[in-house]
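Quick start: read one record
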Amino acid sequence: MKIGFLAALPLLALPLLAPAFAAPTPTPAPAFGGGEILWDRYGVPHVYAKTEAGAFYGFGWAQAQSHGDILLKMYGESRARGAEYWGPDAEKLDRWLIANDVPTRSIAWYEAQTPAMRRNLDAFAAGINAYAAAHPQAIAAEMRQVLPIRGVDIIGHAHRLMNYNYIASENRVLAAAGPVGEGEAPEGSDGSNAWAVMPGRTAAGKTLLLANPHLPWAPSMLTYYEAHLTAPGYSVYGGTQVGLPVVRFAFNDNLGFTNTVNTILGFTRYELKLEGDGYRFDGKVLPFKTAQKSYKVRQPDGTLKTVSFTQRTTVHGPVFEMPDGKTPGSGPTIALKVAGLDRPGVLQQYLDMGKAQDWKAFEAALKTLQVPTFNIIYADRAGHVLYLDNGILPKHKTGGDYRRWAGLVPGDTSETLWTDIHSYEDMPKVFDPPGGFVQNANDGPWVSTWPRTLKPAEWPAHVVQQTGMSMRAQMSVKLLAGTDKISWDDFVSRKLTTTSLMAERMIPALIDAIGTSDDADLAQAKLLLAGWDRKYEADSKAGLLFETWAKLFAGPALTGQGGFATGWSLDDAIQTPNGLKDPAGAVAMLKQAVADTRKLYGAVDRPFGEVSRLKVAEGNLPGHGGLGNLGIFRVMTWSPLKDGERSPVHGETWVSMVEFGTPMKAVGLMSYGNASQPGSKHRADQLPMVEKKQFRTLWRDRKDIEANLEERVTF
C-alpha cells in the first residue's frame, strides 16, 4: 500500500525535485558514529567506522573525493533533471525516465527500505555533501548545482542503473532488431570474466576466486571504484560502480562473489492493436490512461523552458512508439512491462551478500531475488562454489522461446500478460560441480562448468537465450578444465593469458589453404602467421594482420558463423566452430587483409603495442590483449585509429584474485586508476602495472595500510 500511494504522488510534489543548492549544508559526522578514512598510495579508501551508517558516510565522502564530478552528474541524470542542469543533450534520458515513473518510484523505493537502510543511504549522501562543503573548489561548478544529495538520490540512481540501463534502457527497448540470431555469439561477448575454483582442484587445497568485470574506460556511471569498508558486522573489500553505496564485487575473510552480465529478459514489449482512441484487449476496446508529465530544459541564455508531454499507459505499462527506420511515428505502438518494479531491495541484497560469512547466509540473501540481472559467481573458505544465472525474470503462461519474448509480443490478450516471476529455485545454477570449478564469460549457463552438468531441456525455453558460446568463454573453460592442481601462480598467469583461441584454431587451416602459392603478399602472411605464438602481446608482429583477417572472415563484431566448416554445437561446445567452409575464399580474405593492414597500420608486421596504446590522462604505454571474440581472455576493445594509434574503450578494468587460505592472498588492479577527478594523481598511476601484466597486493590489514598511507581523514 505504501508503494502504490507514493507512486501516485504528483511529480512536482516530490522532495526529489526540490531546488538544488550551490553548496550543501553538511550533516555532522558524529551523527553516524565517527570514524576515519585511510587512503593508501594507490588512492584506495580504507574506511573504518564505529557504526554501519558510519561506513556508508565514509564511503560517500571517499567517492566524492575520487569521482565527484561524474558522481554528481549521474545523480542529476538519475533525478531526470539532466536537461534542467546541463541542457538539451540530456533531454532524451529525462523523458525516458519520467515516462517510466523512475523519479516517483524512487521515492516509493526509498520509503520501502528498512529504517537501518534508509539511515545508511542518508549517511552516504551526507558523506558526499560533507566532502563538497569542505572542498567546494574540487567540484566542477556545473556539477555543484546538483547538491545537496539525499538518500532518495542514491536509491533513485540504483533504480535507474539496474532497471533502466541494464534491463530496459531506451536503446534496448526501442531497438527495431530482435535478439542475436541462431549460431551467433552471445551479446556482450567482450564483457566480464569470473572463475571460482574448489579446493580439490588447487595445489594448496584452498578456494580461489577471480572477479574481472569489463566495462568502458571513459569516466561514466559504469566506472568502477575500489574500496575497503570496515564496521561492526560488516567488512568487505572489492569494487563497485561509482554512485552505488555497496560493493558489488566483494570478498571478506570467509567468502567472495562477483558478477557478469547475462541475458535475462527482464522486460516485455507488447505490440498494441489500436482502435479508435483505445486499444484492443481480450475482445474489448479499452481506453488509454493518460497523465501530463513535464521536465525543464536549460536554454543557452540560462533560462529554463518547460516541456510537457502526455504519457499514455495500458494494462501492460507505459506506451511508446517504435521506430521503423524510415518515417518517425510510423513504427508499431508498444506498451512496456518491466519486471522487478515492486522489488526495491537491490542495494540491501548486495549489502547482505557482503555481510554473509557462510553459504547459508549468502544463499538466504540470493533467495530474496532483488538484483534484477547478472550472473553471480561465489566462492568461500569452506570450499563451496556457485554459478547462478540470476535475475528477476517474468514467468510466462504461454510457451515460446527467448526469441519470441524478446521480440514484439501480441498485446491484445491476457494470455500473454505475465503477472509473476520465476523464483530463485527456478533459475539455472551449478553448486560444487564434479569438475571442481565454475566460470562465466557472459556465456549462457550450459557450460558454466566442465564437464557440463546443466541440460537446456530442463528449463523453460524463455529462461536463457539459446545461442552459441563465444570463443572467449571457450577459452575461459579451457584455462580451467582438466584434473591438474592449480597453484596460486598458475591461477594468476592463466588470468593474464593473451592467447587468441581463434588464431590457434584457424591459422593451421589457413596456412594449409595458402599452400605453395607464389603470391608475395600471401607468402609474407604465411611466414608471419606460422611464426606467431598466437599471443596478443605488445611485441606481437602478426596480431594486427590476424585481427584484420578475422573481421573479414567473421564480420566486424567477429560473431559470424558462415565461414566455418563446422558451426558451434553444444555437444562439442569448446571445440566449435572450426574449419574453413571455403578455403579459397578465406585465402582471398587474407590477401585483402594484407592490403588493409598495410594501409591502416603502415606495415603488415607492425608490432601490436606500437598501435594499441594504454592511454589514460597523460599515460600512454604499449598495450596488449584484444577482442574477446578473438578468443582472448585478457580483453581489450580498441578505439578507431587516431593519429596512427588506438586506445582502450572497454575491457580490463577492476580485477581481484583471492585465495581463501591463512593468511589470505589477495591481489588486484584498477586499470585506469581509482579516481577520475581532474588533477588527481590516481587517474593513471596503475597503468604501468597493466603494461607489465602485474598485480598489486590488496592491503586489508591495518598495519599494511598504515605502512602505505597517503592521507588520513577523520569524521
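The longest strand covers residues 289-298.
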